[in-house]
Amino acid sequence: MPSSPPPAPPDALRAAAVALLNLTGLGLGYLLVRRWLPLAVCLAATVVLLLVALPADADGVPGSALVVYAVFLLLAALHGAFVGLRTRLVWPGQRPLALALGVVLLAVPVGGALWYDSAQREAVERALLDRLDGADERVDAARQKDFATAKSEYQDALAVYRDLAVHHSGSRAAAQVPDRMKTYYTTVAAAYGHQDYCAAVEPLKYLRTVPDSIPRDQLGTLTHWPDDRLATSLYECGAGGLADGGGDWVPRFGELLSTFPGSDQAAKVVPAVDTAEKKAAKAVAGKDPCGAVKQLRTLNTQIGQLSNGTGAETDGLVKVADRAEHSGDSGEYACGVKQYRDGDFAQAQQTMRQFVTDSPHDRNRDRARKIAIGAEVAQTLPAAGKKLPTTASGGGISVTVRNDSPDEITVLYTGPVTGSFTLGPCGSCEAYSFASSLLPGWEPCGDSGKNYPQHTISLPPGTTYFVHKPKNDSTATPGSDTAKLRYGYIYTECAYTTQALGSTY
Fold first, then answer.
1. Which pLDDT belongs to residue 69?
2. Closest C-alpha to 489, from 466, 459, 451, 467
3. What is the pTM of this model?
4. How far apart are CA 188 and CA 233, in angstroms?
5. Collapsing DSSP states into helix, strand and coil, what is residue 406?
6. Helix axes of 177-188 and 107-142: crossing angle, nearest 10 degrees
């Protein structure tokens, strides 16, 4: 007996049926021709592919595995066709039926591929939804932090939203991006919702850059959502700094005027600065005129820095700046009076001299000059500063001041009347030694042969304080005298110079 059936006549239809059955991936063609080892190899190859492919995930089956498996099925089909060409079928005996069975069973791998493709797409959708949830979690976590710290987290979340919207536009995750962006905007701009306007400026400026990353059709009305809020924040933050006397209002208002020049908020800048100037000008008459003057000076400088405005805005600011400068100049007088009364005579002298220079037409200019003289005298004779000098002049008592020194001197006096004058140097006079001034009978201005420069003034009765000081660059210590003037007497003052141990008096 032979070990196997004799070869059958060649049959192309049978060979095609075996080849088709092998293309199912189950090796059924080998089953019908009783080739058990090739059948096992086909089944093993299919099992390995299923282990690699299942469960379906977003990455799908590696392309190399699909290529290898496709080549394997093609080889199995060719080999099955070669074997089936001369080998009888076990079942079904009719070749057309086997061929039809092969065609029908091809639906198994085709249907499996379609099912796997659907499962793989669902896995991709789930993965994209997971990415969307991860971005949402970043935004929610950043909510608890200040913007500077959380900015990188917001940017990472935005990158995810952008990738979903641009590269996965047809996905379920991408369809949810517009709603997520609404939450994103309100979260980033949370400081604005809390009316923390200064803290809201940077987040809102950042949100204005988002349309550069996200397609505008995904943002809708969010594209211009930050604009009005940013304008409001710039104004409110600037107005708060202006009211507090800080300098941070300048860049805020400047940015508002340059970025949103036609906005309602920009229109409020000039009135706000105008109100601040009026408030500071009014404060000149209050308890701290010097502080008010300083604020006006600062305000004038700060207004000059607002160079980004245009048109009427700039004109209005210039007018306020001019008024602030004028109010500051006028306020110097009140400041100097306050300094004088507080005993800060050196500062009062400086302030009143500056006022005289800055305000040549002010009605208080003459008295300011008198107060400056009184403040200078009080620096040598503090008792002279007990009363504020007036503009009074003249009197019934004659006082003559002579200069017995080689230096030109300025004579300052204050009391019921305040004033000053200059005496030229005595050409034939010299400085006295300190020792000679202690000798009995020594008296300055006593040499009748000398022609002493002199000047006579008329003063009312009362105490008058005199200070004689050399002019130019002399380092001599000023001389001083306190005179109690009464009617019926003739008074003389003598200015002279003594030297002792390198010092001049």
1. 65
2. 459
3. 0.70
4. 14
5. coil
6. 10
